[in-house]
Write a structure and sequence with these properties.
Layout: H1 2-23, E1 25-28, E2 31-34, E3 36-39, E4 42-54, E5 57-66, H2 73-78, E6 83-89, E7 93-94, H3 95-109, H4 112-117, H5 119-130, E8 134-135, E9 140-146, E10 150-155, E11 158-159, H6 167-178, H7 185-191
Helix pairs in contact: 3-5, 3-6
Domain Chalcone isomerase: 25-192
Protein name: Chalcone isomerase domain-containing protein
Keywords: Signal
């Protein structure tokens, strides 16, 4: 009798723990995203997340984390403290295609004067993609802004190169998705926690 009750208690405890663990995660296209993450000792909340489409193909899931939720681009770019963009690949992609998408997004959403000021950082950022032969389905790229350190890029938990010091550089990266000419308008809405024009939202 005791053994049976013990098993029932353990089963109930396991189910309860499972519910608690799942309660702190959001799922987008099969990718589980934490509702909160720690960056440089600060808790950041999931602001919004969505799918980057190219034609009809799902390319990756992108998630934006901030200290406080923001729904407009100016508020996101002016937000204080650390920030994070987490990208999880939904298909294999060559470094050339992935890097071209990033650099094109920067070119289309950054004015000439800013690009001139940060030429060396943009060149180094472009070289970063050349160092990775291919991005595989399931790979995760993290792009963090850490005050007093800069923009830190990690691929599957491994730091890639030295930080990029200017906040303007991080904002230029954010405008890939949030600028006036974003790479995907539906993804922009999702990262800002707005209704996705494809009929879904960031959840």
């Amino acid at each position: 009798m005791f053994a049976q009750r013990s098993k029932q208690w353990m089963l109930a405890l396991s189910l309860s723990l499972g519910c608690l663990l799942n309660a702190g995660a959001t799922e987008v296209a099969g990718v589980k995203l934490d509702d909160a993450v720690q960056v440089a000792g600060n808790e950041l909340k999931l602001n919004g997340a969505g799918i980057r489409y190219k034609a009809i193909f799902k390319v990756y899931v992108a998630a934006l984390y901030l200290k406080e939720k923001k729904n407009t681009v100016p508020d996101v770019l002016a937000s204080q403290g650390p920030r994070r963009v987490a990208i999880t690949m939904l298909r294999d992609l060559s470094n050339e295609d992935f890097g071209r998408g990033f650099m094109q997004g920067i070119q289309q959403n950054t004015d000439k004067s800013e690009k001139l000021k940060m030429t060396s950082q943009f060149l180094r950022f472009g070289e970063l993609f050349a160092s990775v032969p291919e991005l595989k389905k399931g790979d995760t790229m993290i792009v963090d802004w850490v005050p007093n350190q800069g923009t830190i890029v990690m691929l599957n938990g491994k730091k890639m190169g030295e930080p990029y010091p200017d906040l303007a550089f991080y904002n230029a990266i954010l405008r890939i998705w949030l600028g006036d000419s974003p790479v995907d308008k539906g993804l922009k809405k999702a990262m800002l926690a707005e209704q996705d024009e494809r009929g879904g939202n960031n959840r």
